[in-house]
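Forgive a beginner's question, but might I ask you for the amino acids of a protein and the tokens describing how it folds?
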Amino acid sequence: MAQRATLRDLLAAGLLKAGEELVCEPRQGEVYKATLHEDGLISHEGTTFDSPSRWASHVGQNARNGWRDVKARGQSLGHFREILLGKSRSGGLTSAPASARRREASPEPSLPPVQEEG
């Protein structure tokens, strides 16, 4: 059985930050933005969603995989989930997906730092 991770798990691990902007582009030229909250909920234009797929399906007006279609800092939420699940299986980064290990070995970070508002 595959392990599952939630947005709350990604927040708790520090992979995502409360207040972070999430982006969904269901069709070319259509860009929707939302805010991730510390409780793992997503808000968009006054409506709150309890999962990335519910939000992506809402803005895309059809069933969507939010872990694939919703991005933070240019990376899919699934990317962050893979990193988290790789860490949790081993207790460290040694068994992270191969793509994540290659990025870690790179001298430059693969993700831009989260911008703190202030």
Remarks:
- Residues 93-112 have pLDDT under 50 and may be disordered.
- The radius of gyration is 14 Å.
- The longest helix spans residues 77-90.
- Strands lie at 21-27, 30-36, 42-44, 47-49, 70-72, 75-76.
